[in-house]
Amino acid sequence: MKIVKTIAELRAELLPLKKAGKSIGLVPTMGALHEGHMSLVDASAKENDVTVVSVFLNPIQFGKNEDLDKYPRRLEKDAELVDAHGGNFVFAPTPAEMYPDGDPLTLVRDETMECLYCGATRPGHFRGVLTVVTKLFNISGADRAYFGKKDYQQAFLIKRMVKDLNMPIEIHTLPIVREASGLARSSRNEYMNDVERGAAVAISKALLDAKASYEAGEKDVNRLRSKIQENVAKAGGVVQYIEIASQKTLFANTSGTVDEPSVILIAAFFGKTRLIDNMELN
Predict the structure, then answer these.
(1) Is 153 a known ligand-binding residue?
(2) Has 154 been labeled as part of a binding site?
């Protein structure tokens, strides 16, 4: 396993492998790797000849009052994990390497979807995500890229971008990896103290409870949303949004009845930590 820090070096490493017919898998991350990331690395290592894991804390997807400065950074430990799970390269560029002229003038956007859900409270976040992911696809020339379903809206947008722009890459999305308690794995879980972390389990429990109600016959959107809101609030969480959306379009249900494959999307604060989670209803 090799740590590479420049675009030119990564391309120089990968070009002869591609010419030799080797398949390349890409796992884009912001570092602080955990078991959720490792499930993606495992999948890539199984399905490709070469696996590249990018570790890049992308500044253009963070707002002015967000947690860029305190986001955990531990490249050496991340590299050890990638090596242990069969990865071949860690691509760890600096912001100056990725954006040598400062903030880029050319941005990749989805003007409709980027303003919904997480995008509504994080202006510019998704155009930052789509822009850096496009750059990583172009830099690596990967055949396949791997993303987790915890960031459901992000994965949806990336899939649509690839389809809309005819990008020659397969997008694979893998299930959420959870802690033993049920809390979705996230690098931001480290921000919480033990009490907050224990209370935050209410998110996954509320989603599971709502799914059980749905499978028992409850199809009313407002009742399902209200039940989740109540359960999270009881645990001390502050809900930012709860929506039930179509899996096909990701637009929120407006009929009032869950009548197609859908997904519950939620963002909530426990303490000062913002957490996201979701649950598919099929």
Answers:
(1) no
(2) yes
Tens-place pLDDT, residues 182-217: 999 999 999 999 999 999 999 999 999 999 999 999
Backbone region of residue 31 per phi and psi (left: phi > 0; alpha: psi in -120 to 50; beta: other values) = left
CATH H superfamily, domain 187-281: Pantoate-beta-alanine ligase, C-terminal domain (3.30.1300.10)
Is the Cβ–Cβ distance between 235 and 199 less than 8 Å?
yes
- Give the pLDDT mean for 69-96: 96
Region 2-174: CATH code: 3.40.50.620
For 36-77, how does the pLDDT look when each residue is reduced to its tens digit (9 = 90+)? 999 999 999 999 999 999 999 999 999 887 889 889 999 999
Taking alpha carbons only, the member of 190, 196, 207 closest to residue 237 is: 196
In a 13 Å sphere around the CA of 270, the CA atoms on its Cβ side amount to: 25
2-174 and 187-281: same fold? no
Catalytic positions: 37
Domains of the chain by residue range:
2-174, 187-281
Query: Is 61 annotated for ligand binding?
Result: yes
**pTM exceeding the 0.85 threshold for the entire prediction:** yes
Query: Among the residues of the chain, which ranges form H helices?
Result: 7-19, 35-47, 75-84, 95-98, 118-121, 125-140, 152-164, 194-215, 221-234
Residue 170 has pLDDT above 90, yes or no: yes
Q: For residue 240, how many other CB atoms are within 10 A of its CB? A: 16
What value does the mean pLDDT take over residues 161-175?
Answer: 98
- Cα separation, 178 vs 228, whole angstroms: 19
DSSP assigned state of 78: H
Please check if 245 is assigned to a binding site.
no
What is the pLDDT averaged over residues 104-116? 93
